[in-house]
Amino acid sequence: MAPVLYLTQGMAQAKKRARRQIGVRPHAPEGALRIGKVAQTLGISASMIRAWEKLGLIRPARTDSAYRLYGREDIRILRRAVYLRRVSGLNAPAILKQLREEGLVSTRRVGGADTASIGPRLRNLRVQRGESLATVARALNLSIGFLSNLERSQSSASVGIAHKLAHYYGANLLDFFSSSANAGPLVRADQRKRLQGGEGVEMELLAWGKIVMEPHLFRIGPGAGSIEPYSHEGEEFLFVIKGRLNIALDSQEYRLRTGDSFYFQSSTQHRWENPGSTETLVLWVNTPPTF
Q1: Measured between alpha carbons, how far is 263 from 241 in angstroms, rounded to an integer?
Q2: Using an 8 Å Cβ cutoff, are 150 and 198 in contact?
Q3: Rounded percentage of the chain residues whose pLDDT exceeds 70
Q4: What's the whole-model pTM score?
Q5: CB 33 within 8 A of CB 74
Q6: Domain residue spans of the chain
């Protein structure tokens, strides 16, 4: 039996060496394609595929040499994205929103014990009101599948949709952060509470408790943003620490860059996004805490 065992081990080692030589990981999707072939098949550029990957539409496997490998599910999502772009005329953030609502894309979670998931809180609010998923979905013009995934923390809502949900339940986004006693005058960087605001957007709460200002640090990935316009009571101030930010008040759009500050009435419909290729950091303050 020993020679057979030795031969079996030798064959396995040979297969591993072969994988290393061609640079393919053992868990690569069966029938996976390189980015050039996928781009040719779908009739789009490789740079567009990479841009959509940064937004979170797809997460291809990688070879040991860091080459992307796209499986059947990746190509199915990309094919749908191409259709939404060409036929429906949607831009990248709108495509991401639509794919999330269709259940094709689930939002990655931000790690860390202090990262809040709004799913359980939304479910509790809905149950307390005695309403079904269908009732809430119909009222907010959302799909039942999307709301179900959201409540089960299978996906996350954009800031615009999260604010809609908060307003519907008579709450605000501050209520979706982990509940805690007053923070006190000092909040260490590793003590901040975090909330995912959709793909590519993370909000870090810089103070909480009995406060009249609601300060956040917004981390906004390339192409990410609020997706939908929203409004609420109060006033807002923001300072762009790094990167670029486009913000629209009603039909007027403003283009901000590093070092710019901005002040406006929260009751004005506003929408924002990062038009750049790198992460944008924004100090964002709402008063009173009605965001």
Answers
A1: 15
A2: no
A3: 81
A4: 0.57
A5: no
A6: 26-89, 115-287
